[in-house]
Amino acid sequence: MDKIIVRGGQQLNGNIQVEGAKNAVLPVIAASILASEGKSVIRDVPVLADVYTINEVLRNMNANVVFENNTVEVDASNQLKTEAPFEYVRKMRASVLVLGPLLARYGHANVAMPGGCAIGSRPIDLHLKGFEAMGAKVHVGNGFVEAHVNGRLKGAKIYLDMPSVGATENIMMAAALAEGKTILENCAKEPEIVDLANFLNKMGAKVIGAGTETIKIVGVEKLHGVEHAIIPDRVEAGTFMVAAAITGGNVLIENAVSEHLRPVISKLQEMGVTVEEEGNGIRVIGPERLKPTDIKTLPHPGFPTDMQSQMMALMLCAEGTSMITETVFENRFMHVEEFRRMNAKMKIEGRSVIIEGPSDLQGAEVAATDLRAAAALILAGLRGNGFTRVTELKHLDRGYVDFAGKLKALGADIERVDENGDVVSPFFDYQKDRIVASFKL
Ligand SMILES: CC(=O)N[C@H]1[C@@H](OP(=O)(O)OP(=O)(O)OC[C@H]2O[C@@H](n3ccc(=O)[nH]c3=O)[C@H](O)[C@@H]2O)O[C@H](CO)[C@@H](O)[C@@H]1O
Ligand SMILES: C=C(OP(=O)(O)O)C(=O)O
Predict the structure, then answer these.
(1) Which pLDDT belongs to residue 429?
(2) Which residues does UDP-N-acetyl-alpha-D-glucosamine bind (predicted)?
């Protein structure tokens, strides 16, 4: 298994380009199967294990999918199978996003239940309640959720108990082909929801209000393939902002959209980091001394849970006591134990972590517990004394394109090595084998 070896102490300087957003491209690729005619051409697609997985889900349904040069082309105009087996859903929960499109187009879907994961139990009850409100019969059994409807789904008024990103997306896609109008209230407002709505509208859908808490969708009879470019990844951008800050560096993060990053920018500024808009990017300059702060994760436009562990790494270096409260996922503190191996001083109290900074971070062997934890441990390693070795990179490869390579280009002392100790690059392995290193299907 690959590991990333990082030696702390180097300042990061230079420019990096943000990739297309993982959390935008996955629902967009899922939505492409709504098109019964024409091909969708999706641009600015990041080369990630998750993209590979969603492509395999679609291929397994008999859709024609080609992924080359950061572009995914999907032709779903033939008759598709209406199933997504456990082997894909197990690797990536976002595979459940084919439920809504399949149900809307074929009146049937049979998708493996995602189950819990390292960050929480992550049920899909809100997705299913939405489909039921639109007239579907839903049966959960033998590890699968099977949904069917006679004729078309019917537009409905649906109130989400909480603003779930996945439920908003799944219901929005289903409603696009339903009969009549759907009003979705208390929905998620993330930029990725807006990107999906834009894609659907280009396909011929009628979606109004994405990005606000009420979305109205007037169902149409059919949708067609279109061209679309994915929005920049705000979490990748935020992660590199922390990388610049934690090393006292000076990095221009090109393509980053400051409007999508308001809560992250505001917390970095509170900690004494200089953040300036420059051209079509954001320049981040780390201070000599970081100040402590408090963060509470919330649905957008609150502070994103996907930046929680990276900010925790930064708070470890601040001079004073910081606190993080995680309100979105009930178990997203698995990385705390790993930080402790690096001599971090912190304690968990219920849904909060109290961080006593500055910790005298020491290099250590640590294991990534989830995708963002992987990045956070590497960030801490950039600051730690000596060598940090991060294992379980299958998590990292789900959401970061060549993370070690990009940090190295900014001046980090970092390598990714395989089990023989040979230096590897996940990008080139992908080109050669159609896999991302350490992620073999
Ligand atoms: C592929 C993708 O876009 N993933 C993102 C998406 O995940 P995902 O769409 O899974 O996250 P949700 O917004 O649905 O989950 C938020 C909260 O709602 C709960 N919930 C959700 C659905 C449901 O039916 N019932 C229920 O109780 C979840 O357990 C969680 O506590 O949004 C999360 C919250 O911003 C991000 O961390 C993930 O990176
Ligand atoms: C939790 C995340 O993703 P997913 O919902 O795909 O697990 C993430 O991107 O941090």
Answers:
(1) 46
(2) 93, 122-126, 306, 328
What percent of the residues of the chain are helix, what percent strand, and what percent coil, each to the nearest 5? 35, 30, 35
Number of folded domains in the chain? 2
Name the closest-CA residue to atom 16, ligand 1: 164
433: pLDDT strictly greater than 80: no
pLDDT band at 438 (very low <50, low <70, confident <90, very high): very low
Q: Same structural domain for residues 39 and 68? A: yes
| Ligand 1 center from residue 260 Cα (angstroms) | 18
Among 229, 259, 274, residue at a domain's last position: 229
Residue 105 near ligand 2, beta carbon < 6 Å: no
Continuous H helices in 163-287: 165-176, 191-202, 234-246, 262-270
Q: Whose CA is nearest to atom 36 of ligand 1?
A: 306
The answer to whether residues 133 and 224 belong to one domain is yes
Question: Which ligand is located closest to the Cα atom of residue 97?
Answer: 1
At 427, is the pLDDT very low, low, confident or very high (cuts 50, 70, 90)? low
Q: Is 236 in the pocket of ligand 2 (CB under 6 A)?
A: no
- Residue 129 CA, closest ligand 1 atom number: 24
**Which residue range forms the structural domain that includes residue 172?**
22-229
Give whole-number Cα distances, 149 to 169, 177, 189, 402, in Å.
19, 13, 28, 43
**What pLDDT, in 10s, does the model give residues 263-290?**
999 999 999 999 999 999 999 999 999 9
Angle (CA) 61-82-49 rounded to 5° is: 45
Active site residues: 117
- Domain match, 90 and 50 both: yes
